[in-house]
Specification:
Strand content: 5-15%
Radius of gyration: 21 Å
CATH topology of the largest domain: Methane Monooxygenase Hydroxylase, Chain G, domain 1
Strand order of the largest sheet: 4-1-5
Oligomer: single chain
Shape: flat
CATH class of the largest domain: Mainly Alpha
Order of helices and strands: HHHHEEEEHE
Helix content: 40-55%
Number of domains: 2
Distance between the termini: 27 Å
CATH architecture of the largest domain: Up-down Bundle
Length: 186
Amino acid sequence: MSYALLYEAWKREKESHELQPIDREFYSDLSQYVKRQREELQMLDEKTLKARLLSEEHERVKKLLSDLIHSRYRKMFNSVLDGKTNPSALLTSEEEVSYSGISSTWKHIEDVLKDVLRGRIPAVRGVKPAEKPKRILVRFLKAIPAIIGPDMKAYGPFNEEDVASLPAENAEVLLKRGIAMEVLTR
């Protein structure tokens, strides 16, 4: 991930009324980029030109990312309101979960409207958030020692390129740290 890739994604999104394709791991890759920026900034003397330039780039990344996310979510909301469906190929993993929740909420609103228009008392039913998986299949990008799951069982150790089904809590931490990547199954 680089500033140039973020800028290109932002530019494509701003130039189109339709949601633009984006890599499924875009946000996690970008988070690693931001993390590296922060770590580098901590190592530099803040008075140096390099530190000031990196700090300025970091601020621009935050603004571009904020604008990109807001634009994409606005388009997702609008597509739900217009009755369109967003193909999951256009969404990141995080956006797919959000889109499911947005669609579910809108369906609930429409059901309430239909009930009222039919002279019925609207059924009070909770909008179910997208169910979190109990286990996630991951491929390891780095070797790690054994880890303890929430069920108090040991998992691992794992070598680079190993594939394992782990409790979601453990897998999410490994995914966020860039130690593993999710293996998507159909």
